[in-house]
Design brief:
Residues 223-363 form the SMP-30/Gluconolactonase/LRE-like region domain. By secondary structure, the chain is mostly beta strands. It contains 1 helix and 38 strands. The chain has one helix spanning 262-268, and strands spanning 26-28, 48-52, 59-61, 65-66, 70-76, 79-80, 85-91, 98-100, 103-105, 112-115, 121-124, 127-129, 135-142, 148-159, 163-171, 174-179, 185-189, 200-203, 209-213, 219-224, 230-234, 244-248, 255-258, 276-281, 287-292, 300-305, 311-313, 323-328, 334-338, 343-347, 353-358, 365-371, 374-379, 384-388, 394-396, 405-410, 417-421, 429-435. A hairpin with a 2-residue loop joins β8 (98-100) and β9. The two termini are 32 Å apart.
Amino acid sequence: MSSADNVTENHPVGRVARRTVLQGAAWSIPVIAAAVALPGASASGDLKVVIGIPGSGGCSPAGTVLTDALSVDVTDATGPVSGATVTVTFTSADGGKVEYGGQTYPGSAVPVVVTTDANGHAALSNLTLVTPTTITAQATVTTPDGRTAVSNIETYSVCAPCQQEVFAGPFSGQRDAIVDGAGNLYVTGYNYNSQSDFSLKKITPDGTVAWTRVWNDGSLGVEIGPDGALYASHGWSGNSEPAGIYQIDPADGTTIREVIDWAWILANTSGGRLYPYGMTFSPDGSTIYLTDFRDAAVGQIIAIDLATGVHSTFAGKKNFQSLVDIVSDGAGGFYGAHWATGTLTHIAANGVETTITTFPGDGVINYFNVYDGYAYVGTENGRSYRVNLATGVRTLLPCINATYVTQIVRIPGTNDAYVTQYTGGGTGREILKVKNLFV
């Protein structure tokens, strides 16, 4: 949104946690399997055949041509066995198909036959993945002197197609979200000027609202602390309720305590005013970091020691402009999202900030999460991206078909995600569940 209140600062929407429309399918390619004991060996039992799928895993969409599709290595007690005839058989229990040499397997009567070289090695190249399901491969070997053996079995695993469905809602004013280990979703709502009718909701895995909290001005960021409690930033200074961070019992939504030292805020923020948005914990869980969001270049990251309550300004720096959210980089610094400029950055432990990428044409960005070296970022215009934090390369996530995405959060133990959408007032928008987003 362009403005969240009637003061001079503009205010952002949403953040991604850390921590059904059918779309394109993908294949998962496992690593090379270890050698196994093999039946059908020679009398001395020394003939071994091992097949493997080169590479280190990952997903490829259906239709991908694997240039290094399958390797076969044949050895005996004397070393590599050359000139062995290798017949590869493909099977599938659920309709999977691959193409090789102009034939489709399983199904074709034309055998897949290769011969080992002087190193006892043979390979299949240019194998095409056709359908999104599971296919196994196994090799049968006959040596020039008539010995036979069969190999281990390798599997091309299928990543199921991603699917989008409504999880809960509609709710208005959705901002940040986080998921606990049991799959419960906690989502914030910013209710200033009736943008939302709630501040914090707990939604169980079946989409049922377990409890709802409402307080002045609503809530913005939410995290789960090392103690299992919720930490929710709330309000904005200058209104009827001072801004801060509530520590909340996730079981029933009751407030345990207020974390912010308001006297420190009055003395150490610009004009004694706080605009709390994104939060993250230090790797050891001892410190919570809070962004003091400002459109003018006076924003800061506030570090709060949870044991002592001592507050400090991260790196002594107070010029983080419109910093809506941060995620720990595990090395004393952060990844940061700047709302007004639509910029994703890295903030080193000494406060030095470098740009990772921008999102031209997508409007503002909001809360975000980092998983396995990638940031998952939603935008004002509804497009969502996976960003490689090392290279800055961003990839559109077509599985998410939404409006004004504010958060993408992974459901623990799955490849699925919850996606929140912002709207100010009215009936709001649904919280979405996207299956197989992380494959």
